[in-house]
């Protein structure tokens, strides 16, 4: 299958989505996509978390002690079809929110949904 650069532009987001499709992930099925924003302090993270909750976003907040410096991470969970334009729009919104709250947007990710044809075999009913 050749790559449709309108659906999968030649950038980080397009490359990830193209690879997901190439791996057999069904991009027409909604996924829970996780967007992350990092903060240098708990107070800044909590301020942003309250804003996101008021915007009716599903979030989690945790301290990442494994990074080189102590960071607080907000993960925003958005249930959506992994569509390039929608992902870019949300990224821009989360980047703006991060900037307004002295944080740093840290990207997105999601679980892949890959099914084998055998997973959908129908049982005959007599």
Structure description:
The protein has helices at about 10-20, 40-55, 85-100; strands spanning about 30-40, 60-65, 70-80, 105-110. By secondary structure, the protein is of the alpha+beta class. The protein has a domain at about 40-110. It has a four-stranded antiparallel β-sheet with strand order 2-3-1-4. A hairpin with a 6-residue loop joins strand 2 (about 60-65) and strand 3 (about 70-80). The longest helix is centred in the C-terminal third of the chain and has 17 residues, at about 85-100. It is elongated. About 15% of the residues are buried. The model is unreliable at about 120-125 (pLDDT under 50).
| Beta fraction | 25-35%
* Unreliable runs: 119-126
- Mean of residue pLDDT? 90
The biggest sheet amounts to: 4 strands, antiparallel
Q: Would you count the extended β strands for me?
A: 4
Domain Regulator of ribonuclease activity B: 11-110
Protein name: Regulator of ribonuclease activity B domain-containing protein
Organism: Acinetobacter gandensis
InterPro entries: RraB-like_sf, RraB_dom
What would the keywords be for this entry?
four-stranded antiparallel sheet, 33% helix, RraB_dom, Regulator of ribonuclease activity B domain-containing protein
Write the layout of secondary structure elements.
Elements lengths: L11 H11 L8 E9 L2 H13 L3 E7 L6 E10 L3 H17 L3 E7 L16
Antiparallel strand pairs: 1-3, 1-4, 2-3
């Amino acid at each position: 299958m050749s790559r449709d650069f309108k659906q999968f532009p030649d950038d980080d987001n397009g490359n990830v989505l193209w690879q997901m499709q190439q791996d057999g992930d069904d991009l027409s099925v909604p996924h829970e996509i996780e967007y992350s924003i990092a903060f240098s302090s708990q107070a800044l993270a909590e301020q942003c978390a309250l804003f996101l909750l008021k915007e009716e976003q599903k979030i989690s907040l945790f301290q990442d002690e494994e990074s080189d410096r102590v960071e607080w991470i907000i993960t925003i969970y958005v249930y959506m079809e992994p569509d390039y334009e929608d992902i870019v729009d949300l990224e821009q919104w989360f980047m703006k929110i991060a900037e307004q709250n002295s944080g740093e947007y840290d990207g997105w990710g999601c679980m892949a949904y890959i099914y084998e044809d055998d997973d959908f075999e129908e049982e005959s009913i007599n």
